[in-house]
Amino acid sequence: xxxxxxxxxxxxxxxxxxxxxxxxxxxxxxxxxxxxxxxxxxxxxxxxxxxxxxxxxxxxxxxxxxxxxxxxxxxxxxxxxxxxxxxxxxxxxxxxxxxxxxxxxxxxxxxxxxxxxxxxxxxxxxxxxxxxxxxxxxxxxxxxxxxxxxxxxxxxxxxxxxxxxxxxxxxxxxxxxxxxxxxxxxxxxxxxxxxxxxxxxxxxxxxxxxxxxxxxxxxxxxxxxxxxxxxxxxxxxxxxxxxxxxxxxxxxxxxxxxxxxxxxxxxxxxxxxxxxxxxxxxxxxxxxxxxxxxxxxxxxxxxxxxxxxxxxxxxxxxxxxxxxxxxxxxxxxxxxxxxxxxxxxxxxxxxxxxxxxxxxxxxxxxxxxxxxxxxxxxxxxxxxxxxxxxxxxxxxxxxxxxxxxxxxxxxxxxxxxxxxxxxxxxxxxxxxxxxxxxxxxxxxxxx
Length: 447
Prior knowledge:
Layout: H1 7-49, E1 51-57, H2 62-78, E2 82-88, H3 92-104, E3 111-114, H4 119-124, H5 132-136, E4 153-154, E5 157-158, E6 161-167, E7 169-172, H6 174-179, H7 189-199, E8 214-216, H8 222-234, H9 256-270, E9 274-276, H10 286-290, E10 295-298, H11 303-309, E11 314-316, E12 326-335, H12 340-353, H13 356-366, H14 373-377, H15 379-387, H16 390-397, E13 401-402, H17 410-425, H18 431-446
Parallel strand pairs: 1-2, 1-3, 8-9, 12-13
Antiparallel strand pairs: 3-12, 4-5, 6-12, 7-10, 7-11
Helix pairs in contact: 2-13, 8-9, 8-17, 17-18
């Protein structure tokens, strides 16, 4: 039988078929490369449009930082063209060297969370931008608590956006009041002094005081000054006269309001009814929680600790000498000089941070008072107030709140004023002597 199979012809046919397949797969590979390259180019183009914003903050305790991060994540998810990175850079005293180094090194963050008192110093360093125009065109300006603008304005311009606020009142233990037979809360300085005396007790009858009426902060730090200023303002005292916005205008000599406030704190010590805190730890509430003291000046940031402790507690306003007063605390957001695009993106986040939704969620999670008045009026926040009625005291006090000066060198003023307060509490100087010594020191620095 004749064999039609030829090995040579079969190889030729296989070669032609392989060649066609090779050309086809090479074409597909080429197309795939083009597609992948095109996608990568598109992705690079999209990434190039994302503006990265760095936020430096010192939010504490850690659970409050977690709440902030959730809010930042929400912003990033709803703003695909902006990515905010929130970085914890330590407490405020730890932040200052980093901030100054970043400004000098021309590598500042886009946004800074910080106490408003830093404003004048940053303006003097030409490090931040005013936000008047951006805020003027924003709907959120009308929603900001009006009392907070004093912490935002310097030399006729607005330099920051409020992030969160608080003020100070008097926390107390109702069970200790009841045990001492006290039925009415003190509304004046004299009533506070009398109540403090009644609350100072030797509960176990061993001849030693086991429970003091009140705790006062020992130390020259800012917390001491922050909690003392309401007493000075309530007596009609001022750090500076009129609209003066400079450290050289501070007047403490013969400042009758300041003298009266120092004398009142000293009287509580002389009466034996006030206990001093550990140095520079006047913000700690462990003595009030344990019952070693019955009253302490602090703010809504302490609510969480009291709730976790399980002890009874409540709050009343700072008692009055001449006028109702409290210190406004909290932090603002500052926009650093970067590029127009970065600044615009940073303001968009700041605008979001002052919005009703952000402020409500932040307040519910941290105990901060909302800076947004619509947030305070919302049904969601009102339900929260019903659950924690102590917050209402701080909300009611807010209209009497005063901001600390934001002019340059306020930290020098505060440090020296803190020294004066400390010397009076320790009995080293009379109020008038302490303030005169402080004024002389300030005059050498600023005159």
